[in-house]
Amino acid sequence: MYVIGKQWMWHVQHANGKRENNELHVPIGQPVRLIMTSQDVIHSFYIPAFRIKQDVLPGRYTSLWFEATKPGEYHLFCAEYCGTEHSLMIGTVIVMSLNEYQAWLTTPGDVIMPDGSIQAGQVLLNPNTSGPQLGPSLSDPMAVAGEQLFTSLGCAGCHVEAGGGTGPSLRNVFGYTQTLADGSTVLADENYIRTSILTSMKQIVQGYQPVMPVYEGQISDDQLNQLLAYIVSISNRGGNAPASVPVAEPQPSPAPTSVPAPPSAGGPFDADLATKGEQLFNNLGCVACHQDSGLGLGPRLRGLYNRQVALADGSSITADAAYLQESILNSAAKVVKDYNPIMPVYQGQLKDDEVRQLVEYIKSLTE
Amino acid sequence: MSTSAIPQNYTSTRADSATEWIKSWLLTVDHKRIAILYLLSINFFFLLGGLAASLVRVELVTPQGDLMTADMYNRMFTLHGVIMVFFFLIPAIPAVMGNFLVPLMIGARDLAFPRLNLLSWYLYMGGGVFALVAAITGGVDTGWTFYTPFSSSYSNSNVILTMSGAFIMGFSSILTGLNFIVTIHKMRAPGMTWFRLPLFIWANYATSLIQILATPVLGIALLLVMVERVWRVGIFDPALGGDPLLFQHLFWFYSHPAVYIMILPAMGVISELISAFSRKRIFGYEFIAFSSIAIAVLGFLVWGHHMFVSSQSVYSGLVFSFITMLVAIPSAIKVFNWTATLYKGSISYRTPMLYALGFIGLFIIGGLTGIFLGVVAVDIHVTDTYFVVAHFHYVMVGGTIMAYLGGIHYWWPKMTGRMYNEAWGAISALVVFVGFNMTFFPQFVMGYLGMPRRYHVYPEEFQIYHVLSTAGASILGLGFIIPIIYLTLSLFVGKVAGPNPWAATGLEWSIASPPPTHNFDQTPVVTEEAYAYPEDAAAQDSDSWQAGSHL
Amino acid sequence: MATTSHEHGHNPALQHHFDTPEQQREAATLGMWAFLTTEIMLFGGIFMAYAVYRWAYHEVWALAATHLNTPLAAINTVVLLVSSLTVALGVHAAASGKQRQVVLLLLVTILLGAAFLGIKVTEYSEKFAHCAGYANPITWISGGATLEEAECLVPGQQFHFPVGHGAEEASSLPNIQRNAQLFYLLYFCATGLHAIHMIVGISIMAVLAWMAARGRFSSEYYTPVEIGGLYWHLIDIIWVFLFPLFYLV
């Protein structure tokens, strides 16, 4: 579970997204791991009855684990002087049976959504996702929220899961030793993931360029926790991650998020060039905006070739090879309707055969 | 009032006017007068710190915050800590008793640098003025430990003023230590070899080593926090790229040795008292001397035991824990040596001895609970609770303050030429002992039960302990005030003491009470070991004891 | 201070609480050595902070240091080393009882110390001038050439580390502004504290020169010169550590 201490209260975030303030509901007989950080000054998370205490620092994660053995309510104190209302930064730890805990988890309450907002009266549900099931659970709602963030913030553009992207694949990263650019090795624990998200330059992985944007100040601690949960969930060493308690019944899955594609005309393409084009598409970062999910800053390119495209000026055009080439080199000429004219200009940056490879790749993207 | 029986001494001044008399005291370079200046100013700060403590304890009688606001409470306990640590405990025994006695005990006419000594006092007063101004203009609410980033980025109180006060006081401490080191090295009387020195001198020597090496680090730590507050640069604040743990390391690197600055001179006093009031040579002289140095050295290696839960690595925690166990050994050696000194001694239960015996018992409790705290697993539960508060009050009040009071009473006749009223002395020693235990023992219990420190309001289940504690505090306060009264009265109506009312050994007892300004008419030549009581002193004394004897 | 009467057959510089001049000299020397140890502990704290942040942010440290005026500081190093030489010669002259030489050497030392401070002032004012937008202090006063690229290396609200020129990596280093500001803060703190000690040192030298001119010293009694020299040597040694750590990163 995630704990955020701030002047002068405790926020707790359970694996399924349920939030509570100044209270900590835990099940009996299950090891519970707390991953904690502070939003301002040093606090200290103290449960006298459990004989545990750990300082909670701004700018890093600290952690605690325990296994409650007796039901009841226990004191939770802040044990590091933190300002005016330090004495009021107290709460209750409620230990309940596993069934009661699961029931509690699924009662509506405050929930943090993937976009960072807090909604009352909600329960984050477990959708079924495609892809291999690894680690504790890709159906862990925090991990699902993290996965959504991973996409919406554009991480997926560089951190291609299959590898070969601008950034390393994050599958099986958490819990493994990473080799950094300077030759040193480091264990990819929670703090490593956190630092890499916020200020990646500190530890660039060997073989990769230091081009990852800096996210410090851009995302909240809650969103960080969700991303962390996701990255943990796609590692088969994620077993040490905050325990996600299996929820009693499976929940109905929401509607799929991808935009249904209109029927496409398609056409023949050169497979060799397309393969090279795919590499370019990833290395140049095109994939970051032109996401297959359709949720990126640029339009989805699958099934685009030879389809009718509505432009911003109201006109319509067939997306033939010439259109694709022009859009790559000088996109401002014809911006697609409902999209912003922010695509970089690649005229003069790409060689002719590189452009050809990209066009062949886009042609190869069929539904 | 029989002033004619008291010879011309260091307090006499040939002054024609009041201003001349004041100048003769405020511009003195006589170590004895400077000691008296310190005595008066230190007592003033002690009373101020005690007032703050009283307000804290009264507030804590009820679980709700009904006496003062949370903000006021936070400033109150910070004031108590800052004043007591920096303006009472650190200077007390070295500046009062050390200044007065070090030259006397080694047979010198003054300290090595008398003018520096006066400067030390002025620096102490200057720092005190800063702290007072800070307190009066709103106080500071960071706790005496000033943890960042709260103190460097979040607190709206007089952090810089208070830190400046502590910074300036630090220089006073450094100069006093410097003075003692040079004096002890270079100004011993002929025949006064290192192993003939009284153990009080060994204790002050070890203390001075700590003072000169540790205090500058505090200076830098405070300076950097002040810089961060003013220029908003990230030294300790993670939001600005700094490291909050760096402050804790710099701070505790000084503040742990600081507690040995507080206890080592106290142990030195106890060695003197135990020996004098058992009429016996101290047992294991060399062991006690070397233990003082060992405590000073080891004390520099254990600062991390204040940071077991701070997110420092568990491996460094284990190393600090191990060394903390080691630092207990020399302290224990001293305690065993004192009790061995008592064995078959001719024990006289006068006020100084009452304080000394109280010290031994209370220091054992305080020291042992320190060992409990040094075990990482236990510390995780009790750190930042009242258990720690009880521990350090046992060593600082039950230890240092008891020794301070014992020393004041023992050397009172030497400093003033008068004896205090023994009955009142014994009564107040008992009142202090009872009040002290009643105040702080319940705090061990409630700390173990989970009551955190620096809490303004608390859960009801802890109230009974707080009530007991406050009741004890009122008794303790009484016990501290009574001596002020009878000691002051003794200046006017006390019995004239003579040079050696306790029939004790030591060069300070070989001269008049109070001593003349130049201390020794002739430079003494030392031929005997320290504490050279005759072998059969015990038997002799019980044969010759008469009612009315001071012993 | 009431004193009993005694003969003044001793050197008037012998203070009454000492038995012999040797004892007084030894005490003074030991006292100065003890004091120097405290100074080392003081600067040690700053060096510790420097070490921690250099380890944490080593690229920014290297980059930030390139904007320091190393040639000027190198000259300062030579100046200080020479001044330590003149001080040592002065102590030697005092031991030989050559009063005139003592005064001369101490005056040269003061001059060198003043030169050090002067160069330091130049260095600092160059930084301040850049903050004000001018190329150097002279144009700042006379209103001449301005800086092409905004640069302000004095810590505070207006701090701005120029990332335009230099390697492209500069702009990609995270928190470069924040960490460069930390470097400059430690630089100003360390060199500023050192400069304050220099001012104290020069004052001490001035007092010593005046005392020597008044004939207060002799080959039997020249302790103040000796311990003043010790202090000067400490200031020099601290600079010898500061210079490579900050300028030659």
From TrEMBL, chain A:
GO cellular component: membrane
Keyword Kinase found: no
Localization terms from the record: Membrane
Keywords: Copper, Electron transport, Heme, Iron, Membrane, Metal-binding, Transport
Domain Cytochrome c positions: 141-235, 272-366
All copies of domain Cytochrome oxidase subunit II copper A binding, residue ranges: 1-107
GO-annotated biological processes: ATP synthesis coupled electron transport
Pfam families hit by this protein: COX2 (PF00116), Cytochrom_C (PF00034)
Segments of this protein annotated with the region Disordered: 241-271
Chain intervals with Pro residues compositional bias: 249-265
Principal subcellular localization: membrane
PROSITE patterns, per the entry: COX2, COX2_CUA, CYTC
Residue stretches spanning the membrane: none
Annotated catalysed reactions: 4 Fe(II)-[cytochrome c] + O2 + 8 H(+)(in) = 4 Fe(III)-[cytochrome c] + 2 H2O + 4 H(+)(out)
GO molecular function: copper ion binding; cytochrome-c oxidase activity; heme binding
Family recorded in the similarity comment: Belongs to the cytochrome c oxidase subunit 2 family.
Role played: Subunits I and II form the functional core of the enzyme complex. Electrons originating in cytochrome c are transferred via heme a and Cu(A) to the binuclear center formed by heme a3 and Cu(B).
Stated name of the protein: Cytochrome aa3 subunit 2
Native species: Oscillochloris trichoides DG-6
From TrEMBL, chain C:
UniProt-annotated location(s): Cell membrane; Membrane
Family: Belongs to the cytochrome c oxidase subunit 3 family.
GO molecular function: cytochrome-c oxidase activity
Alphabetized UniProt keyword annotations: Membrane, Transmembrane, Transmembrane helix
Superkingdom per UniProt: Bacteria
Every Heme-copper oxidase subunit III family profile domain range: 30-249
Membrane topology according to the record: Multi-pass membrane protein
GO BP of this protein: aerobic electron transport chain
InterPro entries: Cyt_c/ubiquinol_Oxase_su3, Cyt_c_oxidase-like_su3, Cyt_c_oxidase_su3-like_sf, Cyt_c_oxidase_su3_a-hlx
Segments of this protein annotated with the region Disordered: 1-20
Pfam families in UniProt: COX3 (PF00510)
Gene Ontology CC terms, in alphabetical order: plasma membrane
Transmembrane segments: 33-53, 73-95, 102-119, 182-210, 230-248
Name of the protein this chain belongs to: Cytochrome c oxidase subunit III
PANTHER family, sorted: CYTOCHROME C OXIDASE SUBUNIT III, NITRIC OXIDE REDUCTASE SUBUNIT E
